[in-house]
Amino acid sequence: MPKKIDKDLHKIRVLVKDYLLKKNGVPKPKTVGVGWPSFDEKEIMGAFDCLINLRLSQGPRVKEFEQRYAKMMGKKYAVAVNSGSSANLLVLSSLMISGKLKRGDEVIIPASTFATVASPIIQLGLIPVYVDCDDKTWTISPTEVEKALSPKTKLIMPVHSIGNPADIVSIMSIARKHKLLVLEDCCEAHGASLNGRVVGSFGDIATISFFVAHNITTGEGGMIFTDDAELFDILTSIREFGRLPQHILNKGRFSYEDKVLGFYDTRYVFTRLGFNVRMTDIAASMGLEQIKKLDKLNRKRISIARDYSQTLKKYETHVSIPYTLPKGVHSYYGYCFVINPKAPFTRKEITETLEAAGIETRPFFGGCLPDQPGFRDEPKRVVGQLPVSRWLRDNAVFIGCHPALTKEHVKHVLKTLELFFTNIDLKTNKSRQ
Ligand SMILES: Cc1ncc(COP(=O)(O)O)c(C=O)c1O
């Protein structure tokens, strides 16, 4: 019987593959979007297989996805969740439950990053300490981290922004010297590395996002990595309602005895306050196919980014281009360039030109988070004037460099940029004459 089902599934797979071939694959981006999933029949069949087998919630596919990704990250444990934001929220919650953090403790983060790096810190009664970014890598500056240390500092949360590895080696040495924990936010940095080590493998804990625009995707999704068995237990518990941790659930439904509840079904023993932020098997089955492709997809991103940089290098008086630390591998979640202070044009002018040509743009996400309306009046400590983060806030331009872009798309971007800068130079020279 199973053989028959497998044969039928194979037929469906062939049909889906043929269908996609006829359609020239999954839908392609019409314009140069900032992100686009790279799917084929394998992800579709993974999800389909879950649907026809009614594997609708968290189950064996999630477990397999966790085990595979933990291995890639060189960590003992992985906990899959429904987003990168949930991953950050769960990690900070688990650190508080374990007593490693308490209300009022300070968490050092880069000022320039995404909202849900800072918001769970504030939501849990911790204090974000915003420090500036390095002016070359645009990631958290170790020098600024050192300046930010106080007796209340307990955690440093570097972000490998846009796929560029932060100087995690220096951050780790500061953390070890001062006995601080490190949570690496790798939500934008799948497969990025430093000194041959993948980011996320340096710190005590790491998080990643599988949102649809990221290097690999499950639609929505996230994951947490750690070697800490106690945190793993707490994380698996608060991921689903505050249940008993997974290793006790695995012992069987009536393996738990309590002086009030007696022999109670383990699945309904709630040992702490929790959330429900589980990943579904449908999402995990797509992720299992995506991780097989990660290196290849990243190579394509790197190659497109190289083309962009080659062109933009000619205009380095006007714009700064990505810089990666020696022995670092940037995984280019997107391609960012930043307008230099004396450039004779504004970000509005260049983004309007790009957008009019069908080239989508984004800012450097939150820009400078303490300046955002939702964060201005929230508890915080700001270290220094944040000149780099504010320069990024006002001048960064993020464009797509994902594998769904064709050679024609890339040529179109390069031509549009060349034309923009040629016109700018012509205008500037004319006004000088
Ligand atoms: C640095 C960073 N952290 C966290 C997140 C949150 O991830 P998600 O969108 O999956 O919630 C993002 C989102 O892209 C991010 O860029």
UniProtKB/TrEMBL annotation:
CDD domains: AHBA_syn (cd00616). It holds the Pfam family DegT_DnrJ_EryC1. GO terms for biological process: polysaccharide biosynthetic process. One of its GO terms (molecular function) is pyridoxal phosphate binding. InterPro entries: DegT/StrS_aminotransferase (IPR000653), PyrdxlP-dep_Trfase (IPR015424), PyrdxlP-dep_Trfase_major (IPR015421), PyrdxlP-dep_Trfase_small (IPR015422). Signal peptide: none annotated. Keywords: Pyridoxal phosphate. It comes from the Bacteria. Gene3D superfamilies: Aspartate Aminotransferase, domain 1, Type I PLP-dependent aspartate aminotransferase-like (Major domain). Belongs to the DegT/DnrJ/EryC1 family. PANTHER family: DTDP-4-AMINO-4,6-DIDEOXYGALACTOSE TRANSAMINASE, TRANSAMINASE. This is Aminotransferase DegT.
